[in-house]
Amino acid sequence: MKALKIGRHEVEKPIIQGGMGVGISWDQLAGNVSKEGGLGVVSAVGTGYYSNKEFSHKNVQGKPLGEVNFYSKDGLTAIIKNARKICGDKPLACNVLYASNDYGRIVEDACEAGIDIIITGAGIPTNMPEFTKNYPDVALIPIVSSARALKLICKKWKRYDKLPDAVIVEGPLSGGHQGFTYDQCFMEEYQLENIITPVIEEAKEWGDIPIIAAGGIWDKADIDKFLALGCAGVQMGTRFIGTYECDAHPTFKKVILEAKEEDIKLLKSPVGLPARGVLTALQANIANGTAPKVVCISNCVAPCHRGEEAKAVGYCIADRLSDAYNGDTENGLFFTGSNGYRVNELCSVHELMEKLTNGEK
How many whole angstroms separate alpha carbon 15 and alpha carbon 46? Predict the structure, then answer.
């Protein structure tokens, strides 16, 4: 496998660990993936919960108050600093959702903390370079689900005299939020292997932009498949949950380890797009009206309109993801990709990277 060049940064092994919030990929996981030659990715989501809410400066009902505390600058800085203690000067990335309230400020916080690469999905980040203009060495990677989205991004970024340093193409088998409607997630033409080639062709129109495949990638055979299709690398999230170093609560890992294929479903989300996760007590509680009452305290994502969409689907995504981070199986929302049921044991990041680059032993 060739090294992955992203802007001025070189990733030894062409494997990006997907950003997973709240608290699934923070300092321990991201730091160790980068240490082992991949690209570790810190999630910027919910950093106010880091270190038992040490960096959330105002809480209400035990929850960070507003976006300034939910997306805590001090928390994100501490996470990046602690990841650096593990990986040294190897490339390290931060995933910032475009749907986040305070998106621009969060990107600037990550840059100020010394991050090398910003990855953004959950929307089409047409103004992403606006927030990194004072940090020219920071590479930018948008996540897209179509050639059309990439074309729009490149056109909009021309005003900044900037093109993506790489592009992640995410298919509908990934964990968490999808870039497709519920029906599209099951249609053949929207599967990763069918959307990747048009994006590669569109990228060629703009220059030499590395394309990274994501969504449902499990092992070296999958990696080799997409490298053969012309990708420069892959992104994988779910499989890294099954590592000792993953920042997730032991109970979160237990939920994934015990999940069966039929337990993993596309769920409704306040963000307005389907999201893939494990069916747990939460979904039953929503159905029978016993789920926790929706009260918007953290104001996490713009599409939720301060809790209006949360009330419509029956849960607050910030609260339920933080419950999962705290190991609450009654109220937690446990995101995973379609291959989550294949995670049946824990291993170290070192062991996993060996398997992914050399094949299963």
Answer: 24
Q: Sort residue 230 into left (φ over 0), alpha (ψ -120 to 50) or beta.
A: left
Cβ atoms within 10 Å of 133's Cβ, excluding its own: 12
The pLDDT tens digits of the residues spanning 26-51 come to 999 999 999 999 999 999 999 999 99
Q: Which residues of 218-242 are buried (b: 16+ CB within 10 A; e: fewer)?
A: bbeebbebbbeeebbbbbbbbbbbb
H or E element, residue 60:
strand 59-60
Query: And the tokens for 13?
Result: 């092994």
Q: Taking a C-beta distance cutoff of 8 angstroms, is the pair 318, 280 a contact?
A: no
Residue 359 C-alpha from the chain's centroid: 25
> Phi, psi at residue 43, to the nearest 5°?
-85, 135
Predicted local distance difference test score (pLDDT) of residue 272: 85
The reported pLDDT for the residue numbered 108 is 98
The full set of domain ranges for the chain reads 4-59+69-247+343-358, 252-325
**The domain defined by 4-59+69-247+343-358 carries CATH number 3.40.50.720:** no
- CB atoms inside a 10 Å sphere around CB 178: 24
Q: Are 289 and 341 in contact (CB under 8 A)?
A: no
CA angle, 245 then 250 then 252, to 5°: 105
Phi/psi of residue 180, each to 5°?
Answer: -140, 160
Cis peptide before 22, with omega less than 30 degrees from 0?
yes
Q: How far apart are CA 245 and CA 278, in angstroms?
A: 21
Q: Where are the alpha helices (DSSP H) in the chain?
A: 27-35, 50-53, 66-70, 73-87, 103-112, 147-157, 192-204, 220-228, 238-241, 250-258, 281-288, 308-313, 317-325, 349-358
Chain CA centroid to CA 222, Å: 19
- Listed as ranges, residues in the chain with pLDDT below 50 are none
